[in-house]
Amino acid sequence: MNKSKLLFIIITLYLVVFTFFISKSIYLFFTAHIEKWNSVIDIIAIVILVVIVLPITIFISEKLTTSILKRKLAEKKIYYTLLLY
């Protein structure tokens, strides 16, 4: 596995975990403040997460990876810092 694939996987994992954390917080906020919350809205929220948010997250991680590799930051300490976390 080369550096670009490993860096892409690391950035994607970070962003996916962050996205799920933010999505869960938003979901819990709305469930607490809307009285007529039902299972249809739950299904819509899951579909939005899977169809819209996750592809955008993967697209952003790919752009970050190419940006890091173009600027040759992979040879610097940032690459090793990402690997340690």
Describe the 3D structure.
By secondary structure, the protein is mostly helical. Helix content is 84%, strand content 0%. The chain has 3 helices and no strands. It has helices at 3-33, 39-70, 77-84. The longest helix has 32 residues, at 39-70. The model has no long low-confidence stretch (mean pLDDT 81).
Treating each run of at least 4 consecutive H or I residues as one helix, how many helices? 3
Overall mean pLDDT score? 81
Provide the helix percentage.
Answer: over 70%
List the secondary-structure elements in sequence, H or E: HHH
Key traits:
single chain, 3 helices, 85 residues, 84% helix, mainly alpha, elongated
Strand and helix map with partners:
Blueprint: H1 3-33, H2 39-70, H3 77-84
Please sum up the structure shown.
84% of the residues lie in helices and 0% in strands. By secondary structure, the chain is mostly helical. The chain is elongated.
